[in-house]
Specification:
globular; Arc Repressor Mutant, subunit A; three-stranded antiparallel β-sheet; alpha+beta; 92 residues; 3 helices
Length: 92
């Protein structure tokens, strides 16, 4: 789905937000009547989904920040964001 949409700008739809919750021990993605705990890697990806950066820019930033191969980062980010998009927790 995202392979030909690298210029898309990921953002949370209305009513969905990422928050750091002490009660839940870290970052959680809150949506109406749903909550998903984000692990450390997911949280780093989701923090960048502000509606300002393209998917390519997010992937480049993560690869640079974590000194990791861009292809591997791209695969992981694409999978996560596609899954969240299917659950209507992210707009691409």
């Amino acid at each position: 789905m995202l392979d030909n949409a690298k210029a898309s700008i990921p953002r949370f739809p209305r009513g969905v937000r990422l928050v750091n919750s002490e009660a839940h021990g870290g970052w959680v993605l809150l949506a109406p009547e749903r909550m998903f705990k984000a692990d450390a890697i997911s949280a780093e990806i989701l923090k960048r989904c502000t509606g300002e950066a393209t998917l390519d820019e997010i992937i480049d930033d993560l690869a640079k920040t974590f000194n990791a191969p861009r292809e591997r980062i791209s695969n992981d980010v694409t999978k996560l964001l596609t899954d969240l998009s299917h659950k209507r927790l992210l707009e691409l």
